[in-house]
Amino acid sequence: MPWWRRGTVYQVYPRSFQDSDGDGVGDLAGIERRLDHIAALGVDAIWLSPIFPSPMADFGYDVADYCGVDPLFGDLAAFDRLLAAVHARGLKLLLDFVPNHSSDRHPWFLDSRSSRRSAKRDWYIWRDPAPDGGPPNNWISDFGGPAWEWDEATGQYYLHAFLKQQPDLNWRNPELRAAMFDVLRFWFDRGVDGFRIDVLWHIVKAEGFPDNPPNPYWRPGITERDRLIQQHSTDQPEAHAIAAEMRAIADGYGGDRVLIGEIFLPNDRHARWYGTPERPQVHLPFNFQLIENGWDAARLRAMIAAYEASLPPHGWPNWVIGSHDAPRIAARVGEAQARVAAMLLLTLRGTPTLYQGDEIGIGQVDIPPDRVRDPQELRQPGIGIGRDRSRTPMPWDATPHAGFSTVDPWLPINPDWRIRNVAAQERDPGSMLALYRRLLALRRAHPALAVGDFRLLDAADGVLAYERRHGDAVLRVALNLSHEAKPLPFRGETLLSTLPGSAHETLRADEGIIIR
């Protein structure tokens, strides 16, 4: 069985994990220094958000060189040292591949922009103005405003699904496609174990570039992107063949290399990204539904059932409750329920992904207006889409700057860092960190939790209950998503509760429990 079916992935946001050189920004040497924390958690793989050379207009998701390391983080030698240290601890290392767009400073784009006759002109998406001289169609950037930028020198618009500094690559061009596949090979040859593929469902656009239809449910206060339904700018049929080519490259390296695709789509369309047994696509189309749904037992039960039912027979599920883009789980549901969420994430069927800092329960971090760095928030302020709140530095201890740096870091640290930090929770057997470690140890000890069958069970209102079974071993999980005691839906030996002790007869308020 491949490691990624049994295993757990831990996402590191490199800017905010550990600063080793005193510039207030995390780096590769800092990650290497803190690897023992990750290994002690009991996870199996580390996914790094982008580390490539970048002007940092979107903090690394505007890539200026796909085969290098930004000096902010180190260099290729530092990467090789980190990779060796990760592998020495029995862990895997995944990188973030950004195929939809490059930086506007990438040599490819500079060449493409130099002339309509450039050999790389068609590596990006250039179009003539509409008859009125405006953009070629009505598409809206995910960061707000038109998705087209006028280039005075060559008299055409180029497409950018995100910032204007992130021009979209043209995956219909075979030379571009070959060059990007060579990027995968470059890192696979270096020894990486896989990739998380950024906005995979964006990478091909409909031929003819028709207007996107309006979204009848849009209202003020929602991101401008959602004024339109992205019918023609995302999830095009041709993209699946590209995903299958990426998978063939990964499979050609053996060793259970894994591809995780970032894909936000309804279940039926989401499931297509697994491909077929004969022509597979990504191993794990990322499933964000625990982030996107309200924290309600009935709603989560229905969502889990629908997601499980949508999977093809060869498809393996996956789950995530936090990321560099999403609000912190403890900020969303409170610390007590964040403990329940940890149990949910690590006992559902499928591969879980943890986000750095969630294992110590970092909650709401308010970013002062003068400290905002996220272009998404700067372009559309005040509607709650800022991502800085989830990217704040990791608090390691109670020394100045929380042990993250020797200087003021690039973003504020969580306000309770003096008591909410890794060192403090290491000393507390009832801490969130201790809970995560116990949950991950249980996953390793019980195949029923790691790879067993899954069945939802009946329970009282406000309680989510299910069974995991592997051979003769049966484990049951009951999660009280309410703030009042509920009947315990089954009896047995308590393996773990999210609360100290156990009431045995009832499920306490805000309690999750695993019973054999």
UniProtKB/TrEMBL annotation:
Chain spans, region Disordered: 366-394
InterPro entries, per database record: DUF3459, GH, GH13_cat_dom, Glyco_hydro_b, O16G_dom_2
Composition skew (Basic and acidic residues), residue ranges: 368-377
Keyword Hydrolase appears in the UniProt entry: yes
One MF annotation (Gene Ontology) recorded for this entry: alpha-amylase activity
Residue intervals of the Glycosyl hydrolase family 13 catalytic domain: 11-391
SMART domains (alphabetical): Aamy
Keywords: Glycosidase, Hydrolase
GO term, biological process aspect, one: oligosaccharide catabolic process
Family: Belongs to the glycosyl hydrolase 13 family.
Protein name stated in the entry: Alpha-amylase
